[in-house]
Design a protein that fits this description.
This protein has 458 residues and is mainly alpha-helical. It contains 19 helices and 6 strands.
Length: 458
């Protein structure tokens, strides 16, 4: 058992207790961050005269070789070490001797693990942001190609008004844009360096925390050592933002699953993102969309777990906080994988535009426009609403759509109707006369796309 704290103890830790306490099985993911933080710490110690330049160079060379050997597979991170910090320090001492024991000067595992977690989360935020931007680029391309693709818009899963596919996808562009804003805010708020906080009360060594912070590309050092070692707000915030990303993906997947059904047939999911049935040869299942929808609960679970863990912890560090890692690692990997797969799925998806148009025609989605037509002819809106309700009932009885009614049938219900009703309720009119900002009309949609293009070019 490789431990850094054995001097106080006269008995070996029970093996079961050791295994329960150890974190090497999951915090080995931190090896690069742990070495990066150690290198910055050593440079600062030398700058402050706490280490000689010769000692600094020896330690840096040793750390660099450990990093290279781990990445090449020459050095295995084994479970004989309690945690990743023990692994790095023990291997350093094995390689360069007693000078390696000076690495931990002015540092605790508490501020060390806080730093490692921040470095890891920070890099994952950058990677996740890149994946979201790629997804937004895909959504933008689909929007640009489908400004005139008419489909029904829904409320309560009932056909409501005609929109365009570009307009529908634009709603998700806004959602994922907000997701990027959220993780950017988390990055800004968390980008303070905890190293130098010690176990909880700082240190008597003359550390230059500003220099360490600068080396590690933080905006500044943290200002309270107790908060520094016990803060996991940024983990909670990232898991919360990740849960929102997954919620958006899940909503989108639910719609694609519906659109892919035999009843709708709005989309054809590419074979590479579908599977078949072991017994029913005709089946083509939207498995990726369903799995993303299912994995949303997994990310929610990670958020609830860390919230529950943190709610009863007094200052400062407590071992409970070790529970922040496994679920966070899993949640981040899940979100990144889902964003990447979803992007690939919609990139290769075929849209059945004729079916979308037919569905919009057949669901009385132009009923509101028929009412607006009457209002423009001087009929009070409440009366117009009732007249159009009668039109819909009539069409249901005859199994026809509003645009299939004859002018005499219209006039039998209200003499206000004239021949221009057909133009007023055509799908193109219904969509394109809606030109308020945020509406589906082609003219305003092109303006919105310009805004999105500028956003993606930043």
């Amino acid at each position: 058992m490789a431990q850094l704290w054995g001097g106080r103890f006269t008995k070996e830790t029970d093996q079961l207790v050791y295994n329960f306490n150890a974190s090497i099985s999951f915090d080995k993911k931190f090896y690069a961050q742990d070495i990066e933080g150690s290198m910055a710490h050593v440079k600062m110690l030398a700058k402050q005269g706490i280490l000689t330049d010769e000692e600094k160079d020896q330690i840096l060379d040793g750390l660099d070789n450990i990093l290279k050997d781990v990445e090449s597979g020459k050095l295995e991170i084994s479970d004989k070490y309690e945690d990743i910090h023990s692994f790095v320090e023990a291997n350093l001492i094995d390689r360069i001797g007693d000078v390696g024991k000076k690495l931990h000067t002015g540092r605790s595992r508490n501020d060390q693990v806080a730093l490692d977690m921040k470095l890891y989360v920070r890099s994952e935020i950058v990677e996740l942001d890149g994946l979201l931007k790629e997804l937004l680029s895909t959504i933008y391309k689909i929007m640009e190609e489908n400004i005139s693709t008419i489909m029904p818009g829904f409320t309560h899963l009932q056909k409501a008004q005609p929109i365009t596919l570009a307009h529908h996808f634009g709603a998700y562009f806004e959602m994922f844009k907000r997701d990027r804003d959220r993780i950017y805010d988390i990055y800004k708020r968390m980008n303070l360096c905890p190293l130098g906080s010690g176990a909880l009360a700082g240190t008597t060594y003359p550390l230059d925390r500003e220099y360490t912070s600068e080396l590690l590309e933080f905006d500044a050092p943290t200002l309270n050592s107790m908060d520094s070692v016990s803060d996991r707000d940024y983990v909670i915030e990232l898991l919360s933002a990740s849960s929102t990303i997954m919620m958006h993906l899940s909503r989108f997947c639910e719609e694609i699953i519906i659109w892919n059904s035999n009843e709708y047939q709005f989309v054809e999911i590419d074979d590479t993102y579908s599977t078949g049935s072991s017994i029913m040869p005709q089946k083509k299942n939207p498995d990726i969309a369903e799995l993303i929808r299912g994995k949303t609960g997994r990310v929610y679970g990670a958020l609830m777990s860390i919230l529950t863990t943190m709610k009863g912890i007094p200052l400062a560090y407590n071992k409970d906080m070790q529970e922040d890692k496994e679920l966070t690692f899993d949640a981040i990997d899940t979100v990144k994988g889902c964003v990447k797969l979803f992007d690939g799925m919609i990139k290769t998806m075929q849209f059945k535009k004729d079916n979308m148009r037919k569905s919009a025609n057949g669901g009385f989605t132009n009923a509101t426009d028929a009412a607006d037509y009457l209002v423009n002819k001087g009929v009070p809106f409440r009366d117009a609403h009732g007249i159009v309700g009668q039109l819909v009932l009539y069409c249901i009885e005859k199994n026809i759509s509003l645009d299939e009614m004859t002018i005499s049938e219209y006039k039998a219900i209200s003499t206000v109707f004239e021949e221009d009703i057909y133009e007023a309720i055509s799908m193109e009119t219904c969509v394109n006369k809606r030109l308020t900002l945020g509406a589906p009309g082609e003219e305003i949609m092109r303006e919105v796309l310009k805004t999105y293009r500028s956003y993606l070019a930043k």
